[in-house]
Amino acid sequence: MAEPGRKYMRVAPDSNEYVQIDFKTEGDFSFDYAALVVEESPMGGCSIVCLKSFGIKVGLVCRLKLGHMAPLLSEVVWKSELDDQVTKYGIKFLE
Predict the structure, then answer these.
(1) Are the beta carbons of 45 and 78 closer than 8 angstroms?
(2) Which of 14, 29, 86, 88 has the fewest Cβ atoms nearer than 10 Å?
(3) How far is C-alpha 38 from the chain's CA centre?
């Protein structure tokens, strides 16, 4: 069952799971940054934690490679600042 206020249930990722982020949306995948995955949604998304200095912004469309999956076109849909250096982002898979 989903938590109150959530449309879909969230699941914890495998320990120390990370995502590779490529700011380009076409061409060969070549990641610019890696971030820690903190939640996954079976409905096509996840949340990640990384440094603010990465330059990720809400509305950014990029490609993410999660584990052994092929890179997925994705969009940053929300953010929550955890402290002055670390931010949590909500990601929606677009394919």
Answers:
(1) no
(2) 14
(3) 9
